[in-house]
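Q: My labmate handed me this sequence with no annotations at all. I'd like to see what the chain might look like in three dimensions before we decide whether it's worth expressing. Could you predict it?
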Amino acid sequence: MIRSLHYISLLLITILVFSCKENSDKIIRLSTVRNVVPDIINKNPNISDSKKVALKELYFMSKSRNHYIKYMQKSHQGDIMFGEKYFSCSADYKQIRNTMFKYMRDNEITYGTFLSDVEVFSGIKTKYNRDFQDLYEQIHNACSEKQYTACANSFRRERLTKELNREIKASLIKISKARHYDEEVVEICIKLKNRPRCTIDRLSLNIRISDMFGEEIANLNCKHNTKLKNESVNCWTWSREEHPDIYNALFDKSVSTVHSKIDVTEIIRGNNTRNIERVTDKGYENNYYYRTPKILSGYCPYLEPGDTLYSHRKTLRNNYSGEIKEYAPIYYQLYLAKRRIRNPEI
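A: Here is what I predict for the chain of 346 residues:
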């Protein structure tokens, strides 16, 4: 009886080893990966987490773009850079995926050689983890400071804009197509009312016009360079030749078919100039509303190519990619495909 149990145990081990070896020798193909990968994972319960992740990425990449995105979002919960908008379109996704699997097939890459490369990649990743963590913390701290400045600027701009808008009431009263000096133009007329009735020497306006669905079709900056004491109607024109985008957006529109938002951006009275651009710290005019992510990924919307941290991030990522390419060239194909599927340089 004991010999029988011993024989059965050896038989089961032999079958398992043979099955694993059989899968390891299989060439990675797009057409079979959905059957082979689950088989490898199920028959190797002690497989390392890094290998399991790599196999799952192969598996989900063989599926549609939506399946792959959902898997990546589940795997990186809390990372804002895995939103759908950061992935390439379906056509590009399919091309990138097919190119990677074609490389595997043409070079007869087996699951065994792929998983051996995953082990090498895991060592490289461990080596760089601390460097990435330290750099991403520096980027986050710098980004948080810039966000604080951006919020302060937004507050100043909004407060001054409300103040200027209280002094001047501006209304869109006309949009029309016309001819001026043998040129086709679109004309916009604004009625201005000076509420304090203290003479204004000059003022500037920002006019944003949207269609009936709320989509902005024109963003116009206009100047009123004559004195305004009480009320006046001012008209501006944009020619078809010099401003085709504005002309094409507005030539067939009327006041009744659009929505408009008009902000006063500058008022000049004698030596007193109030301009919303002058109340902000230069270089931080845009507010990207950066928030502390659950997972630091090195993303910061305020980083620009000339920034030191931007350069450090690029250098570290290039070194990391270079080592993967050199020492784990097979896994590098998956790594490269993943990077190409994610649209932005973040």
